[in-house]
Specification:
Elements lengths: L37 H4 L10 E7 L6 H15 L3 E7 L2 H13 L6 E5 L3 H5 L13 H5 L3 H4 L3 E2 L2 E2 L1 E14 H6 L4 H7 L3 H10 L2 E3 L2 E9 L5 H10 L19 H15 L12 H9 L3 E7 L2 H14 L14 E4 L12 E9 L7 H15 L1 H10 L7 H7 L10 H12 L10 H23 L5 H16 L6
Parallel strand pairs: 1-2, 1-3, 8-9
Antiparallel strand pairs: 3-11, 4-5, 6-9, 6-10, 6-11, 7-8
Helix pairs in contact: 11-19, 15-16, 18-19
């Protein structure tokens, strides 16, 4: 793998991700764009007489983002006279709806923060801008090659990645050690599903016939089931919905094995029978109260969540999670199946650009410049620091190295995340936006609803597998399925 790959991170996105503290403001010497803003590059030729307004819709990328973005804008406007930035803030809950309303009305914002998985959706509108025709080589070369691929479709590039955050498994260090699990070896060398399954059994504790502590818990209520599915599928020989030959992969025998594994953990008693009803909040509370030795999805920021809650307990602060215990969280890879290689689930989110009118090239150039500013340099460093990952661009890493160390951040976890970032499943820009959209629709209408039924015991792995195959054959044609 080339040097330009994901190193020192872990997506991410959030992204789009989950995601905490940093304090942001651009400085006089170095703004978010590590290579300098356009005004600097052009000798500050912009003037108030040549005013241009750039609009953006941005969700709370981190807990501090929407407050810090005001500082980013002020710094950018100061360095780029004549440019006005107008940002519409939106919660994660209503962000997609607000963006879709604008896009469907034919008046999209200039910039939006979206997950790379949604790029194909907006390509279909015809209004997503191929920034490769406008961005400079210095801008594009700033980003790690493997991450930038996620912002592509075909030969076109549709945005700048903000971060790459891996999703895997978080484990309570004390409980893992009590169960005799060598978590450090797992961080370094990974584990198979059989090894993971045995660890879950060892981490399950019963008292008087009742489960006091589960070996494993995942949030599977509603959209949370998607994370559980995607994380495990990538390590079951299906790093993408399409295999290397471009055939739909989820009709392969690997899928049946994966579906059986979901039932195995529940049937063993290592995971709750009610897992299909557990949401993200309940999952985290079970982890912090010692009711779960391991949880999925584990993101880098769960380490901060656990650390902060432990500090609250130590100080006697009543805002600590009720019934919680001190937790030192360790980051673990998802298990692999039958000798498959590790393909980590990466959340790569970033800034895409829209244009209903490409005739105003100066405006488009300004939009590209501001989008790059948000994704690079000090801005990227502060966002990634809040997410417990390191930036995916050289300018961001340079700025990141100058920031103070994060209190309580584990060196072992940092190394484990870096390793998984190097193993993030490769992007598939070779798959058309139409096919990706069809795969997304099939997942939303068949896979995820059926997965909920599988976890609750209302259907079997075989029946779910047959339903997937039937829908896939109808969508893609049997000859185009694995």
């Amino acid at each position: 793998m080339k040097r330009k790959k994901v190193i020192g991170l872990l997506l991410i996105a959030g992204m789009m991700a989950s995601m905490a503290a940093g304090c942001g403001s651009g400085s006089d010497d170095s703004s978010g764009g590590g290579n300098g803003t356009k005004a600097e590059a052009q000798g500050d030729t912009k003037t108030e007489e040549k005013s241009d307004k750039i609009t953006a819709i941005l969700p709370p990328v981190t807990s501090a983002y929407q407050e810090n973005v005001e500082d980013y804008i002020a710094s950018y406007e100061e360095e780029n006279p004549g440019i006005e930035i107008e940002v519409v803030s939106a919660s994660w809950e209503d962000f997609s709806e607000k963006l879709d309303v604008q896009v469907n009305a034919g008046s999209p914002p200039d910039i939006a923060f979206i997950g790379s998985g949604d790029i194909s959706k907006y390509i279909e509108t015809g209004m997503l801008l191929d920034i490769g025709a406008y961005a400079s080589e210095d801008m594009l070369n700033d980003f790690d090659e493997t991450v930038l691929e996620y912002m592509k479709n075909g030969d076109s590039i549709y945005g700048f990645p903000a971060y790459c955050s891996v999703q895997a498994i978080a484990g309570n260090k004390e409980l893992l050690e009590a169960a005799g699990i060598d978590w450090q070896n797992v961080q370094e060398n990974g584990w198979t599903f059989d090894e993971f399954r045995e660890a879950c059994k060892k981490g399950t504790v019963t008292e008087n016939g009742e489960v006091k502590q589960y070996g494993f818990v995942s949030a599977c209520s509603g959209v949370s089931a998607e994370d559980y599915f995607n994380i495990f599928a990538k390590n079951a020989g299906m790093p993408s919905p399409f295999n290397e030959d471009g055939k739909y992969a989820y009709t392969s025998e690997n899928m049946l094995q994966l579906l059986q594994s979901y039932r195995d953990l529940i049937d063993d008693g290592s995971a709750p029978e009610s897992m299909s009803t557990i949401d993200g909040t309940k999952k985290n509370n079970m982890y912090l109260t010692g009711q779960a030795m391991m949880i999925c999805k584990g993101t880098p920021t769960i380490e901060k969540t656990a650390y902060d809650n432990t500090k609250l307990l130590e100080s006697g602060d009543s805002s600590a999670v009720e019934g919680s215990i001190p937790v030192e969280s360790v980051f673990l890879p998802a298990p692999t199946f039958d000798g498959q290689s590790q393909n980590a689930q990466g959340t790569i989110d970033g800034y895409v650009c829209f244009s209903a009118d490409t005739s105003d090239e100066e405006h488009i150039s300004n939009v590209i410049d501001f989008a790059y500013y948000l994704a690079s340099g000090e801005t990227a460093a502060e966002v990634c620091r809040d997410l417990y990952v390191t930036p995916v661009c050289e300018s961001g890493r340079e700025a990141y190295d100058k920031l103070p160390a994060i209190e309580g951040k584990s060196e072992e976890n940092t190394k484990a995340i870096e390793l998984l970032q190097e193993q993030v499943a490769p992007a598939r820009p070779d798959i058309s936006s139409e096919k990706m959209s069809q795969a997304t629709q099939l997942a939303d209408e068949v896979i995820f609803p059926k997965l909920s039924s599988l976890l609750s015991g209302e259907t079997t792995p075989e029946d779910m597998y047959n339903a997937i195959c039937e829908a896939a054959y109808e969508t893609f044609g049997e000859e185009n399925c694995a």
